[in-house]
Amino acid sequence: MTKFIGISASIVKDEGRKRFRVDHAYIDSILNAGALPLMIPVYENVENLRALVSEMDALILAGGADVSPFLYGEDPLTEEEFQPDRDKSEMELYRLATEKGIPIMGICRGLQLVNVIKGGSLYQDLRKFKFEKVHHNRIKVADEGPDEMYHFINIDRKSRFYKYSGSEQIVVNSIHHQAIKDLGLGLKATAFSRDGIIEIVEDENYPNFWGFQFHPERLSEDEIFNNIFKDFLRSADD
């Protein structure tokens, strides 16, 4: 039976028109795992989201624009664009997905949003907080994409991810300037970059949650991450 993995779409402004976009890497990683992708636009109507979630076997909350700092009680420290409509839509999407009990993967912004939903906070800009020893964004080579390996992460041997990596240290890609500061309720950090940024998160109260600060969808040709996507899909049967 065909399974569908929902992917939250980014809002892109193009010559004054609003468009929704999903990066091809999400599509490829889902297809490689043996499922079909289902793009989820930003909706204000909860019933539209509920209808889509009813067709989904799993959900990926994808990367994109910064999460609004107002959601975790802070004034903006940067001039980066926020998308309150997307925040609101994806918060509802997350609620409906957890209500249904399907597997959820939060990637980059997606992880940050889940952390905020669960009462956590974010570093609004790593450079403002002097995280400069490790480059978390592609600031050196103009054409270097997020699929380029960028920095090491250190992995908890007791974590679920360690069962896939078989190593306490691997190199991952990176394309972000925000990150988790205070963890939300029930969330557990299981991997860190060398400067202490949280890179992988598990939810002790929701076992079918994966949270990545880096971009595993762009690494799905690697055996480690291909197996994670396959098991993410397989867990929809649990």
Question: Overview of this structure, please?
Answer:
The chain is of the alpha/beta class. It contains six helices and 13 strands. Strands 4-1-5-6-13-12-11-8-9 form a nine-stranded mixed sheet, sandwiched between helices. The chain is globular.
Write the topology of this structure:
Elements: E1 4-8, E2 10-14, E3 17-21, H1 24-32, E4 36-40, H2 46-54, E5 58-61, H3 84-100, E6 104-107, H4 109-117, E7 122-123, E8 151-155, H5 162-165, E9 169-172, E10 179-180, E11 187-193, E12 198-203, E13 209-212, H6 223-234
Parallel strand pairs: 1-4, 1-5, 5-6, 6-13
Antiparallel strand pairs: 2-3, 7-10, 8-9, 8-11, 11-12, 12-13
Helix pairs in contact: 2-3
Strand order of the largest sheet: 4-1-5-6-13-12-11-8-9
Q: Cα-atom Rg, whole angstroms? A: 17 Å
Helix content: 25-40%
Span between termini: 15 Å
How many DSSP helices? Answer: 6
Low-confidence stretches: 139-144
The largest β sheet comes out as: 9 strands, mixed
Could you tell me the number of beta strands?
A: 13
Characterize the overall form.
Answer: globular
Summing up helix and strand content along with how strands pair, one would put the structural category as: alpha/beta
- The proportion of residues in beta strands is 15-25%
